[in-house]
Amino acid sequence: MKFFLILIGLGASYVFVRYREMVGDMIGGRHMLAVGIGVLVFFWTIAYAVGATEFFLSPLLWLFPGGRG
User: Fold this and answer.
1) Rounded to whole angstroms, what are the CA distances from 30 to 25, 42, 51, 58?
2) CA atoms within 13 A on the CB side of 50
3) For residue 51, which of 3, 7, 43, 63 sits 20 to 30 Å off, Cα-Cα?
4) Cβ contacts of residue 56 below 8 Å, gap of 6+?
5) What is the C-alpha separation between 54 and 48, in angstroms, rounded?
6) Residue from 40, 39, 48 nearest 1 by CA
7) Tens of pLDDT along 12-68?
8) Is the CB of residue 62 less than 8 Å from the CB of residue 69?
């Protein structure tokens, strides 16, 4: 199941970057937003593949109250 999710993530990031104009038109004409989402999905997928999501996402927990513990 993990391998399947990794393939979906890599494929989705490719689609976001490759077809940024079509994806950008679908989300309101912001083409660079589609590229940003594609890059974010790519790095999130790589972090998930190597098991480093907790390490990479720990700074985001500092933004929420009670997330440091």
Assistant:
1) 7, 19, 32, 29
2) 8
3) 63
4) 43, 44, 47
5) 9
6) 48
7) 888 888 888 887 777 776 777 878 888 888 988 998 899 888 887 777 777 777 655
8) no
Long-range contacts, 13-21 (Cβ 8 Å, 24+): 13/38, 13/39, 13/41, 13/42, 13/45, 14/38, 16/41
The token duo for 6 is 């990794």
Contact 17, 39 (CB under 8 A): yes
Compute the distance between CA of residue 62 and CA of residue 51 in angstroms, rounded to an integer.
20
